[in-house]
Amino acid sequence: MAGDTETGVTIHRTTPELDAGPIAAQRPFPIGPEDDAGVVYARAAEVAAELLDSVLAAPVFVPQAEEGATYAEKLTTADRELDWSRPPQELLNRVRALSPHVGARGELDGRRVTIWKARLENGRLVPVEVQPEGRRRMSYDEFLRGVR
Q1: CA angle, 102 as apex, 105 and 85 as ends, to 5°?
Q2: Domain 1-72: what homologous superfamily?
Q3: Looking at the DSSP assignment, which residues form a beta bridge with residue 29?
Q4: Chain segment 72-123, per-residue pLDDT in tens
Q5: φ, ψ of residue 77 in degrees (nearest 5)
Q6: In which residue ranges of the chain is CATH 3.40.50.170 found?
Q7: What is d(CA 35, CA 33) in angstroms, rounded to the nearest whole number?
Q8: Span 77-146 CATH architecture
Q9: What's the pLDDT tens digit per position in 56-75?
Q10: Distance from C-alpha of 125 to C-alpha of 85, rounded to nearest angstrom
Q11: 104-108 and 23-30: which strand pairing?
């Protein structure tokens, strides 16, 4: 949701403090401009399996630096809402971060929808895949054909 272009996986020993244990392995990987959370989670799982396999037999733990740590707040229902007054890139980041799990919510042509996929076009957010309340997922073109 923050628009990061890179993330990563860390194998560490758990401690009572959140994400504070010593590190056995880390590997960053890029987030592509069209990757959504589902793609990132799948890639993270692959990297985690590789990392775990490489350290499981004889892990060597290194203390984690205390500075520079960040904390991601738990997502709420309000985080799903699209505020159309916000910059288009911010809206796209929200859509990508919430798909394919819960989706971003907003109003299009007077109807409440979940937006699953979108793109930027001429500086505007253009929905690609939407789901009107109580309906199935559909392309934005299908949605527009059904709007009267």
Answers
A1: 25
A2: Formyl transferase, N-terminal domain (3.40.50.170)
A3: 7
A4: 788 899 999 999 999 999 999 999 999 999 999 999 989 999 999 999 999 9
A5: -60, -35
A6: 1-72
A7: 6
A8: Roll (3.10)
A9: 999 999 998 877 667 778 88
A10: 11
A11: unpaired
